[in-house]
Amino acid sequence: MLHPGSLCCNSSHCTWTSSHEMLRPYILKPFHIFQNVSKNTGINNIGRSLRVPPFMASQLPAATTEHQLVSTQDGSSQNTAPQPLQVAKRLEKFKTTIFTQMSSLAIKHGAINLGQGFPNFDGPEFVKEAAIQAIRDGKNQYARGYGIPDLNSAVADRFKKETGLTVDPEKEVTVTSGCTEAIAATILGLINPGDEVILFAPFYDSYEATLSMAGAKIKSVTLKPPNFSIPIDELKSIVSKNTRAILMNTPHNPTGKMFTRDELNVIASLCIEHDVLVFSDEVYDKLAFEMDHISIASLSGMYDRTVTLNSLGKTFSLTGWKIGWAVAPAHLTWGVRQAHSFLTFATSTPMQYAAATALRAPDSYYEELRRDYIAKKTILVEGLESVGFTVYPSSGTYFVVVDHTPFGLENDVAFCEYLIKEVGVVAIPTSVFYLNPEEGKNLVRFTFCKDEGTLRSAVERMKEKLLKK
After folding, report:
1. 323: which residues sit within 8 A by CB, 6+ positions away?
2. Cα dist. 149→158, 254, 352, 425 in Å?
3. Contact status, residue 311 vs residue 323, Cβ threshold 8 Å
4. Which positions fall inside the Aminotransferase class I/classII large domain (predicted)?
5. Torsion 22-26-27-30 (CA) sign
6. Cross-strand partners of 311
7. At the N or C end, where does the chain have fewer CB atoms within 10 A?
8. For the chain, which residues make up each domain, given as ranges?
9. Which of 344, 424, 415 is nearest to 107 (CA)?
10. Domain 98-123+364-465: homologous superfamily in CATH
11. On the CB side of 279, how many CA atoms lie within 13 Å of its CA?
């Protein structure tokens, strides 16, 4: 019988004390505090409760109508009421990300972190040396807003090699601070309040948050196990003249699914028929194990309506550099660049020079990368199966989704809490990646972007301590 215990994190940024509730907001009703806000707070929507991120909740005073005594500059005292956290309505439902929470808990409990998708090994020496050389050469001031010419050209060259499409590096390539910023610039630059955007659930959590900031109307189509195939009839039923864009991700995080050519053709035909844009997140394009990656922009009639989003971090194990880019026709690039110029304006200059070097790596680099990740994937998948999980196929990315229900916990959050505290391994509950969290309550995500020793140690911990009911 498994009993999820209470968890707690004590770091330089947060202190959780009643921590079984830490992850609850992801599957239960939102946490509410300060339901009666006095007029002197300056909040216009008096009486409306505010949703408080779990990592901040324990630092706040309990909601109260009693005034507290504070000292003023002249030494006198005055009464003041506790102030509620303030956040724009468009972000009220979002809390600290699940990745931050789980990584903090991993540190607290000495757990092996197979949750957040960052490698525990370093990137290639030739790329790091290129960054060091750029710094020594004095390339340390602001870069051109949409990217240094050498990186824009390297992106365009790589895009042509992969898709067969020739793009103008000066007019159709925009360098951003990671793919997450490329996504944000694309959405904020091309989506108007009230525009309808379709997602495939489960989805990377920044999609929903950024669409909410843009005031979009979000719809989702759910990809279901075991194969996470697109439900074609459902997709056809919701794409209409009201649809502004489809935001997709292949290879797909968190499931590891790769969209097939047939699926991409259906999406393309619907977009052409209804004049719909596509925002295609392809950051895992070089981590395709069982089929070739296909960029939807390469399909007939699609380049003029597609923004292709990518980054350096996943392929070169340099996630902290935050180098991303967007490739799009000039008429769409205009909107992307307008938003980008007011988000970050420019991306780290020396890292851009190094990124240009990285993108010119020989094919042998990518072949070795795939071989290495296939070996890591095999260790994790075979280990999870031996422990008793139902493991679903993963054709790309460095993630594997499993069904945790053989172990008897009520949902994915409860299971992940138990896994961290009692077993010492971190996974990510997938319910946070759905508009309706209930759809993901049976699934959790593991990553294999760790060295083989770490993966084997995690498997051994689960074999030793994780028992079926």
Report:
1. 151, 175, 177, 178, 311, 312, 313, 347, 348, 351, 352, 355
2. 14, 34, 10, 44
3. yes
4. 112-461
5. positive
6. 324
7. N
8. 98-123+364-465, 125-360
9. 424
10. Aspartate Aminotransferase, domain 1 (3.90.1150.10)
11. 29
Distance CA 265, CA 279 (A): 15
Structure tokens at 386: 């031996």
pLDDT by residue for the chain (469 residues), tens only, comes to 444 333 333 333 333 333 333 343 333 333 333 233 333 333 333 233 333 333 333 333 333 333 444 555 666 656 667 888 898 988 888 877 777 777 788 888 899 999 989 999 999 999 999 999 999 999 999 999 999 999 999 999 999 999 999 999 999 999 999 999 999 999 999 999 999 999 999 999 999 999 999 999 999 999 999 999 999 999 999 999 999 999 999 999 999 999 999 999 999 999 999 999 999 999 999 999 999 999 999 999 999 999 999 999 999 999 999 999 999 999 999 999 999 999 999 999 999 999 999 999 999 999 999 999 999 999 999 999 999 999 999 999 999 999 999 999 999 999 999 999 999 999 999 999 999 999 999 999 999 999 999 999 999 999 999 976 5
Q: Which CATH class is domain 125-360?
A: alpha beta
What six digits make up the tokens of 295?
A: 């960029």
Tokens of 358: 């990285």
Q: How far apart are CA 18 and CA 220, in angstroms?
A: 33
Sign of CA dihedral 114, 116, 117, 123: negative
How far apart are the C-alpha atoms of 131 and 135, rounded to whole Å?
Answer: 6
Under DSSP, is residue 86 helix (H, G, I), strand (E, B) or coil? coil
162-201 CB burial, b ≥16 within 10 A, e <16: bbebebebebbbbbbbbbbbbbbbbbbbbbeeebbbbbbb
Residue with tokens 């019988």: 1
By CB atoms closer than 10 A (0-12, 13-18, 19+), residue 271 is: buried
Cβ-based neighbours of 465, under 8 Å, separated by 6 or more: 422, 423, 424
In the block, residue with structure tokens 């292709």 = 308
Place of tokens 């991120």: 53
Residue 309 β-bridge partners? 281, 326
Global pTM?
A: 0.83
Q: By C-alpha distance, which of 294, 306, 220 is closest to 263? A: 294
